[in-house]
Amino acid sequence: MHTFHENQKLRFGDIVVTPYFVSHSAYDAYMFLIEAEGKRILHTGDFRGHGYLSKGLILTIQKYIGQVDVLIIEGTMLARKDETILTESVLSQKASELIKEHKYVFVHCSSTDMERLASFKNATRSMFPKRPLLADEYQKDILALFSETAGKKSPCFDFGKIYTYSEKNPKLKAWMQEKGFTMFIRASASFNRLLDLILPMLPVEGKPLLIYSMWDGYINRNDTRNEDYVYLQKRFAEVVQLHTSGHATADTLRRVCELTNPRLAILPIHRDKGTDLSSIGIPSQLQERIVTTSCKLSNDINIEFL
To answer: Rounded CA gap, 210 and 240, in Å?
Structure first.
């Protein structure tokens, strides 16, 4: 296994691959510019334009990538155009309002979504600097890694002291009861055992709140429902969903298509069946270059969909 670094070229024979950092719901995501035989292909992977780390997206494309021959672009949000998309900053503000109203707050979000975790950390510390932040050992290790890397570049991602709950730590227990807390949780057997210890010690008037900060399809869609997530929510009398997507909106997809202006083809991937990339409002000449079936673009380029 070999590591790679942003904007540093990787060479595989006569193929050159350059990674460019993007914001996504998994930290340290990249798009890849692939160059070979005089052709340039940009594979965006999953990305978005509304995270804390999205500010460089357009500038990166304008300055380092420019026009390509083929654009392979994600289309997750094509089926969710009516979904309200918040910036991470706005989400953090809304989280602050919830944390102000509730003394005991549990947050269910992805443990690898650094920007989302930072939103709730920042919301907690802006409202109640003396409230502890809690996580399990796995999450604590990840948050420490975020602090050691991104946290050295921005205080937004410095998570500071994170606590793990233990019955053997009466001082922490008393602190949690008196000052309240924000706790990152996961839908696992170990966390359910932890909740068996924590929930009974909290007064009813404290209104324990679960903030669900993930896609609602894991709860509300029969074909994608996660029963562990559903069970976790049933343990709380009060549940609020506060989420924003880790994927590019239609506006962001359109901007990337226009900026890269692919000469030969646009290949939409990672999308729901029946969605249409041409519906995002790109110019007609780009709509004509959208490819969703196997075809031959030129004498030396074949695209096969398996």
So the answer is: 6
